[in-house]
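Hi all, a correction to my earlier message: I attached the wrong file for Dipeptidase. Here's the right sequence:
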Amino acid sequence: MTNLQQLDAYFVEHREAHLNELKEFLRIPSISSLSEHKEDIQHAAQWLASAFEKLNLENISITQTAGHPVVYADWLHAEGKPTILFYGHYDVQPVDPLNLWDSEPFNPTIRDNKLFARGASDDKGQVFMHLKMIEALFATTGTLPVNVKFIYEGEEEIGSPHLPAYVEQNKEKLEADLILISDTGLYGPGKPAVCYGLRGLTGIQIDVRGAKGDLHSGLYGGGVQNAIHALAEILASFRDEHGTIQVDGFYDKVLPLTEEEREAYLALGFDEESVKQEVGVKELFGEQGFSYLERTWARPTLEVNGVFGGFSGEGIKTVLPAEAGAKITCRLVPNQEPDEIVALLKAHVEKHKPAGVEINISEFDKGRPFLTPFDHPFIQAAGRSYEKVYNVPTAYTRGGGSIPIVAAFDEILALPVVLMGFGLSSENFHAPNEHFHLENFDKGLRVLSDYLFEVAELQK
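and the right structure:
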């Protein structure tokens, strides 16, 4: 029997036991953003440490940070072979609105071969697959084909505020040849994908102040600046009619797509009409000269996320609002630095500041973009493992969103990052009725197991 055949037999035999164990993990309401769940976070960390002990992993530790703990373990006995650092998170999002759940969010339920629970897909289910892969490899071969290290955190859903410091303080302990993360998704049902890049993120809030208080529009209208009009003028200056960003220097450092990447995206046969139907619009919008996938995966953005000010109650109130504000975020692509982009945004606002108002700008959290070249051997090896199990070509994609800690790993540890996820965009992570398609749980176990053998064959 081949390694994959042995593993397949093991996973079939132990499937029910594995799912019961996963349900136990999912019952822990490890919501990182709510202080009343601090003990649950500790419980989840201890659960993982105990799971590592059962696998006979070594150097197991639970490190308390200024926030929630980091759990670590390793096994380093594959002499001369590469080392994979696995990352994931055991914290989950809040569950409200609770009334929209069809079953209790922390009482895992299987319906139509889908496992429903908060954290089922993001990210406990995928973290759990790492553990069962290791269990299966030890059970079928008595060893592992590569060295492994694990680092699981409890703060990803609140932006990983304390993990970069942990990584910086433990650089030597975390040395590896690559980082593997299962916190992304497939390209579509039955369509595996290796995500080799993510956009970064930065943002600002613009607060506009005019008069010392709201003014009667009959007495002062036409003679004193209206804060909302001033804000609208600033916002309109950010983009042209095609969505191209008009901030001086914004595109200067953008890493252009290679022809190979553009051809790979074109080969996916993406249906832009389906996006229109999905979101309920008659036409798409964005930078000219780029496809929808290119605009959402590999081009930077500037979006107004919220505008506030003035009177919005029933009826009308004839005032000149004294205050108005807006929240703006930018998705960034490789070579763009969040701090530099914020400086450009501030300069742009100052340049376009209307008369009669004062402006204050505050900054939001920042995350750098990340990119591992899609022709990197570790990326291509992941594609081969997917193809063996799913029996279709692997798509090589970028993610339009951001996982800030990925960029931190890239910067601090200087390692290639391989994103091998098994979720689907339809699985309601962060929303009621989150679920995980068990077809991808089953296949993912086999893909991840095979990937360790693929990596073992690469030159260290």
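Sorry for the mix-up. The chain has a mean pLDDT of 96.
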